[in-house]
Amino acid sequence: MVWCCFSAGVFNCLFPVLSGRGFAFRRKQKIERQYRRLLKKRRQVHSQQDDQFTDTYPEHLKHLYLAEEEKLKKRRRTPDDSVSSEEKLNKAAESVGTQEKFKNKTSNEKAKEEYEKIKAEHARKKEEAEKRRQQREEAQRLYKKKKMEAFKILSKKTKKGQPNLNLQVEFLLQKIQQNT
After folding, report:
1. Contact (CB, 8 A) for 168 and 153
2. Which H or E run contains 14?
3. What global pTM score does this model have?
4. In whole angstroms, what separates CA 17 from the centre of its chain?
5. Could you give the C-alpha distances from 101 to 82, 93, 98, in angstroms and in order?
6. pLDDT of residue 168 exceeding 80
7. Per the record, where are the segments of Basic and acidic residues compositional bias (predicted)?
8. CA quadruple 160, 162, 164, 165: dihedral, nearest 10
9. Is the pLDDT of residue 28 over 80?
């Protein structure tokens, strides 16, 4: 640490000048703090996991808690501890055998399958659209037929050219009976 004094009238006090304490040093300190925090958190997590099973267990559930504790201990172990080299070779040989059974498809085969899927989807959509169109046309035809019948009944006239009220009242009565 070096002490400097500016007596040129601007600064009349002493202040320390820290050499080698620039932005890189501050960045290094920040990273070290973050690393220490991370280590502390990990220690807390491990201690919590270890303390999880140290409580006294109810007798009727003790076997379940102990089995869970064993599972967690096995998970924490590295895979190298539990699997021998012979077992690794056997697994590798099995995976090679299964790869031969399920050979990867070529890009041409994949493209053909994709094309067939798309073609089937288009055909299904086309059929659905055709069904909807036919249903709509049938509904419109029935609607027009009903309207024409109603128009014929309501537009009938007497010999003198007056509207036939008897037919109109009968039509309204039928309509009311259908709705109820």
Report:
1. yes
2. strand 14-17
3. 0.36
4. 56
5. 29, 13, 5
6. yes
7. 100-141
8. -130
9. yes
Q: Give me the pLDDT at residue 86, please.
A: 61
Separation CA 41–CA 152 (nearest Å): 88
Distance between CA atoms of residues 57 and 19, nearest Å? 60
Name the residue ranges covered by the structural domains of the chain: 1-78, 108-180
pLDDT digits (tens, 9 = 90+) for 91-129: 655 665 555 555 678 889 899 999 999 999 999 999 999
Structure tokens at 56: 């006294």
Nearest by Cα to 52 from 35, 33, 76: 76
DSSP, collapsed to helix, strand or coil, labels residue 30 as: helix
Give the length of the chain: 180
Bridge partner list, 157: 163
pLDDT at residue 120 in the model: 95
